[in-house]
Amino acid sequence: MDNPFVRKMEQHVRLAPEDRALLDGLARQHVRHVAARQDIEGQQSDPYHTHLILDGWACRYKQFPDGRRAIVALLLPGDLCDPFVFRRARMDHAIGALTPVTVARITPDQIGDAIRGRPAVEECLWREMLATLAIHREWIASVGRRSAIERLAHLFCELHLRLARVGLADGTSLPMPVTQPDLADALGQTSVHINRTLKELRTSGLVALRSRRLTIRDLDGLMERGLFDPAYLQLS
């Protein structure tokens, strides 16, 4: 069963075959493809559903009137774009595709049906919500207090573990399809600053970045440099 959502949920809780089949079925509802740099859900829209990322990278972002953008979350295969969608509410942010993405649309009613009488499914979805909140807290801490190099090192460590848990990291090598402006918008820096910070990580022998692929040459060193503790990711 090659499904990043199911693989991710199994990191939280041991699932019975029928639970895996149920989650796999959720991931096959209303599947569509979205081109790179297009919105999956626009700011100020009023959806009564969430989207599940099946393939590709997306982001949650805020757009300012003068055109500036703040990326407040990176969304990877297996991620629910909004795991808290229990009621209709106007979007105060947008969900945008950073690469070509494939998504499934899931309604709160479908989630409610999935957890009814299925304690393992309910627990793994709750744990996923807790992990999402913890990631937000770490991002706030990064922008608020980590140095420039600590922010980027921490983000690379986080992305490595998040991709590894769904089978999309090859050892310490992982796809890195985002641009330097994307990283700048995610870390509250300029593209020039990101370029300098990347160079410092390279010359320190911690990472290599080539052809949209990141290789972590010294994972322990990168974790130390980014003050990274993986406990917040709720890995079992």
Q: What would you note in describing this structure?
A:
- The chain is an alpha+beta fold and 236 residues long.
- The chain folds into two domains: 4-128, Jelly Rolls (Sandwich), CATH 2.60.120.10; 146-233, Arc Repressor Mutant, subunit A (Orthogonal Bundle).
- It has helices spanning 4-9, 17-26, 108-115, 119-145, 148-164, 180-187, 191-203, 219-225; strands at 31-34, 39-41, 50-55, 58-63, 69-75, 94-97, 101-106, 173-175, 207-210, 213-216.
- The strands form three sheets. It has a four-stranded antiparallel β-sheet with strand order 2-6-4-5. A three-stranded antiparallel β-sheet has the order 1-7-3.
- Helix 5 (148-164) packs across helix 7 (191-203), helix 5 crosses helix 8 and helix 6 (180-187) crosses helix 7 (191-203).
- The longest helix is centred in the middle third of the chain and has 27 residues, at 119-145.
